[in-house]
Amino acid sequence: MILTYETNHYIFHYLSNSLAEQDIAQIAECQEKCFKRICSTLNIIYDHKISYWLYSSPKIIGDIFFNGSPCNGLSVTSADDEDVGRRVSLCGDADNEFIVEPYSVHAVYEDKIKCIGAHEDTHIISAQLCEPRSAFLCEGLAMFMEGKWWGIDNKAWAKYYIVSGELFSTSYMICFDEDDFYNVDSSKTYPVAGAWTEYVFEKYGADKYKQFYCANDYLWDAMKIFGDPLEQIHEGFVSWLGGSDVSEDVYLNIKQKIK
User: Fold this and answer.
1) Within a 10 A sphere around the Cβ of 172, how many other Cβ atoms?
2) Could you give the angle at the alpha carbon of 40 between the alpha carbons of 35 and 44, nearest 5°?
3) CA within 20 to 30 Å of 82's CA: 8, 100, 155, 157, which one?
4) Separation between Cα atoms, residue 107 and residue 10, nearest integer Å
5) Residue 247 and residue 212: Cα distance in Å, rounded?
6) H or E segment and range at residue 162
7) Which residues touch 226 (CB under 8 Å, ≥6 apart)?
8) Do residues 199 and 235 lie in contact, with contact meaning Cβ atoms separated by under 8 Å?
9) CB 218 within 8 A of CB 134
């Protein structure tokens, strides 16, 4: 049976006798804190309640939304999303079916995977600004708000790729087609995009970042908005990362997680 739990900005949906039911108060508290931080950082007033659906495994989400490819979580950011209106099931049986709604998050919550936090909520809330053409910017903002990838700080991942010689040029990645971006190993794109976003917020400020987030021509508009070309911003990003300390233990942890 599907149960619900409502807060100021969310309606949570989960199965009875699940881990989500056991932890729902803590889950709600976590998301409300994330909501407040996202809106404050982006200076957005968001007036839709986010519908949060909690599943027991990545396989169920993958079967519903990704043709069988397991997935920990996704967001439905608008009423125009192709998944809106689909009849699906929270656990694969007809007794627990529901209609996919706009402004909804679909996330795994089980013993090993707890897909809660700021990432998917950032996609939904930031869609009020726009939905950028660049997957690097879209995922970068969500990763900036999340702060970590696989439990390790975004900046540590980016610096690791500098040391290993595997860092992509961010000026190139920003202009990737969506398919090209998502075809690259996510551990080389998501945390780097998050670290780059943190750098841009710190150096240029939120207002200029938001203008660029919604830009039409990233190569041209970077110079117009920031006063610097993308290549120079990348150089500044690399220099900024050089000033961050990453322990050998963290590097070893990253290597293990990549393997």
Assistant:
1) 13
2) 85
3) 8
4) 14
5) 33
6) helix 154-163
7) 200, 204, 208, 212, 233
8) no
9) yes
Q: How many CB atoms lie within 10 A of CB 91?
A: 14
User: Tens of pLDDT along 35-86?
Assistant: 999 999 999 999 889 999 999 999 999 999 998 899 999 999 988 889 999 8
Check residue 31 and give left, alpha or beta (phi > 0: left; psi -120 to 50: alpha): alpha
Q: Which two structure tokens, joined as six digits, stand for 52?
A: 């949060």
Given pLDDT bands bounded at 50, 70 and 90, which one contains residue 96? confident
Q: Quick one: three-class SS letters along 95-122?
A: HHEEECCCCEEEEEECCCCECCCCHHHH
If residue 218 lies in a helix (H) or strand (E), which one and from where to where?
helix 218-226
Q: How far apart are CA 109 and CA 28, in angstroms?
A: 13
pLDDT, average across residues 210-222: 95
The letter for the amino acid at 161 is Y
* Residue located via tokens 């087609």: 177
Strand-pair category, 50-55 with 73-76:
unpaired
- The one-letter amino acid code at 32 reads E
200: DSSP letter: H
Q: Quote the DSSP letter at residue 169.
A: P
What does the chain come to in residues? 259
Q: How far apart are CA 111 and CA 42, in angstroms?
A: 32
Instruction: Give the Cα separation of 174 and 213 in Å (integer).
Output: 10
pLDDT at res. 94: 73
Predicted pLDDT of residue 91: 81
**Average of per-residue pLDDT across 86-98:** 84
